[in-house]
Fold each of these.
Amino acid sequence: MAIHTDINLSTNDKRILNALFDPETLPSSVAKSKDASTIDSNLAPHPNIAAAQISALETQQDAFIKRISSNSETSEIEEVIREMDTVIEEHPTYPSAHLNRAMLHRMLLESQLPPSTTSPSSSNIFTLPPSTLEPLFTSLSRAIHLSLSPSSPTASVSTYQARILRTAFSHRAYLYLKAAEGGTELRGKGKGELEELASSDFANAARYGDEIAREMSVRTNPYAKMCGAIVKNALREEMRQGHGQGI
């Protein structure tokens, strides 16, 4: 990921700046996200639900989701959410239902927004009462909890669990990021804290195979951005002084 600046930097200076934002060069959990040992294709889809049951439930979930589109009425979304709630009551440890319910809750909230008369950022779900957002975050957190290995949060997971984890972490990271960009305080956390949460969730999504999230984790990392700004300012000041001395 190239860094663009408005000053002429040497090749070495550009290398330093790029390293601050390049996930390939970071000695962090983000840089280790390509470790295939995190996902074990030999594991059963879910530790507590039989593979045949998972397959049947996934088919049912697909049918639910196909009934909804971006043009669906609020009543249609609410109906599918009620059916999803029934599935969760019958299969409380089935993570896909929690993940899909989160998506449906977000669509429901978006369907209730008034048309934006200025910019898209002036009309988003974070302008709604905080209590209306809780089901969305609760469902995502539940999907994550149910998909992590019960033995250890860092233990290997199945390909099915990895899919749920990278999707749920990415969705939640996106929400944190949108709240931060809009200057919204969420659960008592301001812009900086929300950016940290977004970066952490993107890193977790990357750990389970989402390479776009891997790059987003670096872009949203407030410490990397701060270091980049410090280095750029120092280089700019050094060059200004150099030009002032006729160098």
Amino acid sequence: MAEKRRPKSVKHSKESRRRLNHEIKSEPGPYDIDFPTFNNPGVKEIHEFMQTLEKHSTYPQKIAAGLESFSKLEILHRLLDPTTDDIITVSTGDKDRLGARLQERFEKPILYRADGSSDCPDIKDLLKQLSEKGNKNLHVYDCSITDPSRRTYPTTVEKALQCFPSNPESRSLNFLDIENRFGVLYCPWLVSNHDIRTKISTHNFEEAGKVGSNWKLDKSSEFFLLSTRNAVSSIHVDNGGQLTWIKILKGRKIWYFPRCLGIGTLRLLAETGSQYPEYYRGGWVKVELCVGDVL
């Protein structure tokens, strides 16, 4: 009996279609922002803030929508480059496209959709490493405290580990700025190469080899964030709105950002933060980040 084989073009077409469907999928699975407040004033404040933010946020608007008004050539171009009005999505393995996007002027967030696989230590490795430092200190953000200026305070690693695994009744806690001391970096190398500090450190050197070279890598610092279920981070600006990325090691996170990015938006974020989410021009965009995703 002769073996039936599909033409390569058909196989590649289906693979491209699966990749495309994965890339342009931006609507998250079900989530509930109506988390329990336990009648706590601080948690109720965060709850009300999230309700307001949710009213003024939508999923990314896809450029691929409304293709019926375009020619076949325009449709093909847009499907092969499935960006959106609000965010640029690149799938894992498409390094050429990621590199090309990183070289462009930053106007939209880039979502690097990963497949979840990684050679880096995972969340279990992190918890194990932390368990060896039970009496060491780290800081936690606790929204149950009414006074915002007192919500960040020091605690111990031992107390932090007691909060995991969390459950729906857990307190909303964010354990902050846990240094990456694994000796490996989680940042994709293409992203790291486009960091301005990397560009500066590699620009002015004469020798490509070790002999006669005084080049030293300006290694970026990385930090972990451990969050319990239903934990919320207030709206803020990291590092002046640049050189910041996040990768999900475990769980999922709904990420909100202003639809209209610019110096005016950054200034408003820096001055008012989470106080008035309803006053941002264009509202907010929300994106689901899953294991392996980099934003």
Amino acid sequence: MDQLRRGPLLRYRDEDAAYCLVRLLEDELPVSDTDSRGLTDQNVADLLRCTNAVLTRLSIDHRIPWRTRRAYWEQNSGMGAATYHCGRILTALAQLEEAASRTGIRGVNGDLRNVIFAATQKPEFVWVDFPQQILEITKNAEHCLKYDRPIPSAGITVTDLLSWWSARDGIHHLRPAAQLQQLKNQFDTSCPDSPLERDLLRIYWRFAEARAFATTPAIFPQVYLHYDPVSQDIRDRTGGRKIPFQKKDFMLFAPGHRRIILEIDGREHYSTNGNPSPREYAKMTKEDRRLSLQGYEVYRFGGYEFQPSQDPDTVLTAFFTDLFADQAPERTE
């Protein structure tokens, strides 16, 4: 119970846990404390505290307004108030599930493909059912990863990502440590030409391990935020509107619907043929403004910050700590 109160469990979504907790409270609150068949008063108090913590992570405003079963009985004399409040929460959970099922782009088997990432080659899509946003990856599906679970308001934690990864064919039989190492290797493979991106991944993994996977947002490398089905070479030859910056170095999905983009700027971000280019720099800053107005958080790192003399491990760890300072994991006594 304490573990669930502090953060999501490894193999259970908060939405599922909340449903079970609320159903249990609906049954247990009306039970008299003299009835030995039910939970003890302390059990119910712990259950109420845990339930409200999970509802907070899910950004559900409805709460069960009692801290103990005794308080419930003193105010309601065992009448139907528990059913009323629990019913409101169950309705909110159902609405959350329905909203999640309509979010993102679905694959042909009906699953959600909200994040296409770790791409080493550009995938190609066809729309199988455009009105319902159902698509199929027809080429290079083996060269990218597709996180195909709903993205709740609580975001995607490292635990969530590992749960998804462990369910893949050829992975589920491995020990958790081996599964984690394979995921790290896959991420590194998606950044073959960027030692700086691999450095950031290494530092973030260490930060997440120290902070706790269950409460730390997962990091996704090489994420497609925009998509143009026509290659850049063809656009250059034939003209037409280009969609720049289709792929982002890293994205994180944090509690409170936070969508965080991390970019590492090498010379190509502000130069042309090795010469400083105000035009290239302006393109980049214009894109940042557009994303910020859409609600994304964009943070850029200069390549120089990864030089050994700049102590990148300390600098980035401090940044990540500050980035999630308002979502620090609860300490136990």
